[in-house]
Write a structure and sequence with these properties.
There is one protein chain. This protein has about 425 residues and is mostly beta strands. The protein has 2 domains: about 90 residues, Immunoglobulin-like, CATH 2.60.40; about 300 residues, YVTN repeat-like/Quinoprotein amine dehydrogenase (Methylamine Dehydrogenase, Chain H), CATH 2.130.10.10. It has 1 helix and 37 strands. The radius of gyration is 30 Å and the shape is elongated.
Length: about 425
């Protein structure tokens, strides 16, 4: 028995060593990137990646990385012959920031991976103005107007009481929304052809929409039942969340956004007070809020933690600053015998439009706003690249740097109720 054990133990040890040696024999692919050898690429470019990968028994792929994070740029394998591979990467992200990125080619053999990298510089799409869009209303009819970079003006009649307008540079789309009659509709900026319509089923005579704004290239609409709905390129719903305790069937809401926060000014059905809700973009929960008596006019973000509101009390217009962190509302000024219409941020200050004048003020100084123009505007839009403000006043759209004479942009037969800048992104 002792002799048998003496024979078995060496045999077991030999088998174990063989098994261990087999387990340790891992085969890794050999990968090499032939091109590009660094390089500089701009938005719209196709990046051709040529590589070799041998001893492969699995997937061979290409990707773009910023640090350790994968950048969402589409790619495809366009050629493969033996160990040779060619990929195309499509630089189609308008919002990708300029900088150095890594192109990675990765190959696998039974779960064993090999990666090779090459650095490239990707240059972001330069933001520029493509034109101006406006909405003109004459009684129960509306007209969508577009002026392009060549100053050509195109118009399109709309059926419904359209009152809200936004522009998506991400999708090159104009989006319009009605108050009570009509459908949320998207049009192509190039030829004003219709992209999609979205009906909102509700009882006759009840308001459909109370606001429309573009947030990071996505149109966001505030519905009359207190929801903020975000839409994609084909009208697919990206998000739909109930804004906390906004009443249905109530008019006159306003909304604005800054970073990941949305400010909504709305009237509470229970007590008739106006409420300012600041909602996190990630979860749409109410973060801070305050209320003030009187009729709300507009809300506009000034900085990360401060938004400006205008509301009317009796025959006066009151301007106040709301601090999101401290949840305090500070009255800045009160304009007697004026009817406020619109607020607009202009980089270094704020504008307030009334029915007959436009004022400028610093939201951190407690003083009466200064008269800028003796003419009012239904809507103002700041164009940051040129420093000009576009004014929708009566039946005409004008533009000017604050304090400079107004320049004609376009006019139509009705009242201009909204104007937006059409950017390329």
């Amino acid at each position: 028995m002792k002799h048998l054990r003496a024979l078995i133990y060496p045999l077991i040890a030999t088998v174990t060593i063989l098994q261990l040696s087999c387990k340790e024999e891992k085969v890794y692919p050999k990968v090499d990137i032939l091109s590009p050898d660094q390089g500089h690429y701009r938005y719209g470019d196709t990046i051709l990646v040529r590589a070799t990968a041998s001893e492969v028994n699995g997937n061979v792929s290409v990707s773009v990385l910023k640090g350790a994070s994968i950048v969402n740029l589409p790619s495809s394998l366009v050629y493969q012959d033996g160990d040779e591979y060619e990929f195309e990467i499509y630089f189609d992200d308008k919002y990708l920031e300029s900088g150095e990125y890594d192109i990675r080619v990765r190959a696998f053999n039974e779960g064993n991976g090999t990666s090779k990298f090459v650095k490239v510089f990707l240059e972001e799409l330069e933001k520029r103005v493509r034109g101006v869009v406006a909405l003109s209303v004459n009684w129960n009819t509306a007209t969508l107007l577009k002026r392009d970079s060549a100053s050509a003006i195109t118009s399109l009649s709309l059926e419904g009481d359209y009152h809200y307008l936004s522009f998506s540079g991400r999708f090159d789309q104009i989006v319009v929304a009605p108050r009570e009659e009509g459908e949320l509709t998207s049009f192509s900026f190039n030829d004003l052809s219709e992209n999609y319509t979205i009906p909102l089923f509700t009882s006759s005579g009840i308001r459909l929409y109370d606001g429309l704004i573009d947030i990071n290239g996505y149109p966001n609409v505030l519905t009359s039942d207190g929801r903020i709905k975000s839409y994609g390129e084909q009208g697919n719903q990206i998000k739909s969340n109930l804004v906390d305790d906004l009443p249905a069937l109530d008019a006159g809401r306003e909304l604005d956004f800054y970073g990941d926060k949305i400010a909504v000014l709305s009237k509470q059905e229970t007590d008739g007070f106006w409420k300012l809700s600041v909602i996190g973009e990630s979860n749409r929960n109410v973060m801070r809020w305050s209320r003030s008596s009187g009729e709300g006019i507009d809300v506009e973000w000034y900085s990360n933690n401060n938004c400006i509101i205008a509301y009317s009390k009796q025959n006066n217009t009151i301007i106040a600053r709301y601090d999101v962190e401290s949840r305090t509302l500070t009255q800045l000024s009160e304009l007697a015998n004026t009817k406020g219409v619109d607020l607009e941020w202009i980089g270094t200050g704020m504008l307030l439009s009334t029915d007959n004048e436009i004022y400028v003020f610093d939201p951190f100084i407690l003083q009466t706003p200064s008269l800028l123009y003796s003419q009012g505007a239904n809507k103002m839009t700041y164009e940051a690249l040129s420093g000009e403000v576009y004014y929708a006043s009566d039946n005409t759209v004008y533009k000017a740097k604050p304090g400079s004479p107004w320049q004609y942009v376009m006019a139509y037969g009705g009242s201009m109720v909204d104007v937006e800048i059409a950017y390329n992104k």
